[in-house]
Design a protein that fits this description.
This protein is mostly helical. It is built from 19 helices and no strands.
Length: 389
């Protein structure tokens, strides 16, 4: 009887194996008739049965069925994770047997899945569902780890979703991949700053400028970094380097004019004897900026202020002279008037560009008083404008 029992058990196992193989065939037949819901039910049953779950064909058919569901609007709604299941199935084949007869088909199917997932990510991004876009692109990246285009989309989606840590992670991976896209450097530098990682931002900016020496955006970042740190001399060095590469950039000339202005103030305070030199460079820079962009308010106003302040200094010097120094006093007042007259056309140009600027209006008012032009039409306009402030 014991021998008979073993025979009966063996027959039962064979029958079960045949039954599960039949399930795989049944699933395939339903697939051919596009009855994907029935095909899914049959193949899912086969995939969890110990007799058929180790068969490569089971997972090959399962991948086919789920991929078909993912591409069919009628069935996809009931199985929103169809692409994920298809991907798992094809990967299962390669896991069971790296040299499987289905290997080539499985790998091609995974390429198709990656394309579908990537397009879902694009659709989600365009619909402004950035978190969904990120999840799709991250999955596509898992299917193709070395694809920098997908990594870029992961980074941009995370950044758009406000997920700074994840965005930083992907931008860092792009930098590690030795990307040639300067936008990656710009984005990561700004994210480091946003995240308070200023040392990393500064180090990456230095690396970016070395890698892309002609990029204007990085040059401006480098200049702004020096400005933010209050390092005037470093700012001037950066600006001069930028001007050497882009000599017709009016903004650079205007900005370096401001820096030289600050250096002149510092020279006066420290009595270094270089005030006149720095004022001369500031004047030259402002004039160059105006030459390149005549209608720039800041350049005109700043040059007017430079002349006005020089005139005010001559007035102060004259007032400090003893009463006996009449000739010297008159000479100093003449110098002051010359500076005030030099400031006038630049202030008035500024007025034509921005007639409601309070600081400019105040400067013009003082200028007209200094030049005894309080009866002029411009003075009356300025006073009327100030009364409205």
């Amino acid at each position: 009887m014991r021998k008979l029992s073993l025979v009966i058990l063996s027959v039962a196992l064979v029958m079960n194996l045949h039954a599960q193989k039949a399930k795989v065939v049944t699933a395939y037949n339903y697939y051919n008739y596009k009855e994907f819901d029935k095909a899914k039910a049959a193949i899912d049953e086969a995939s969890v049965n110990e007799q058929s779950s180790g068969m490569e064909k089971t997972w090959y058919y399962r991948g086919m069925i789920y991929l078909a569901i993912a591409g069919d609007a009628k069935f996809k709604a009931a199985t929103p994770n169809a692409l994920e299941e298809a991907s798992k199935s094809y990967n299962k084949i390669l896991e069971l047997n790296p040299k499987s007869e289905y290997k080539k088909d499985a790998e091609q199917a995974l390429v198709s899945i990656k394309a579908l997932v990537f397009n879902e990510g694009l659709d989600a991004y365009n619909a402004k569902d950035y978190n969904l876009a990120l999840s799709r692109f991250e999955w596509a990246s898992q299917l193709s780890p070395g694809d920098t285009n997908i990594l870029t989309n992961c980074a941009v989606s995370a950044q758009s979703a406000g997920n700074t840590p994840v965005a930083i992670k992907y931008y860092e991976r792009l930098i590690e991949s030795n990307t040639l896209d300067v936008r990656t450097y710009n984005s990561l530098i700004n994210l480091y700053k946003k995240d308070g990682q200023m040392d990393k931002a500064s180090a990456l900016l230095k690396k970016g400028v070395e890698k892309f020496p002609n990029d204007e955006g990085l040059r401006v970042m480098k200049i702004n970094e020096a400005l933010e740190k209050g390092d005037v001399e470093k700012s001037i060095d950066e600006l001069n380097a930028a001007i050497a590469k882009d000599p017709t950039n009016a903004a650079l000339h205007s900005t370096i004019g401001v820096m030289y202005d600050k250096m002149a103030t510092k020279a006066k305070e420290t009595k270094s004897g270089k005030q006149a030199e720095f004022l001369g460079k500031a004047e030259e820079s402002y004039k160059k900026a105006i030459e390149l962009t005549p209608d720039n308010f800041d350049s005109n106003y700043n040059l007017g202020v430079l002349y006005f302040n020089q005139g005010a200094e001559f007035i102060n010097t004259a007032n400090d002279l003893p009463p006996s120094k009449t000739k010297e006093y008159d000479a100093m007042i003449a110098k002051a008037d010359a500076k005030f007259k030099a400031a006038q056309p630049y202030f008035e140009k500024g007025y034509s560009l921005k007639a409601d600027d309070f600081n400019l209006l105040q400067s013009l008012k003082q200028l007209y008083v200094r030049l005894n032009q309080t009866e002029s039409e411009m003075y009356k306009k300025v006073i009327k404008a100030l009364e409205k402030k």
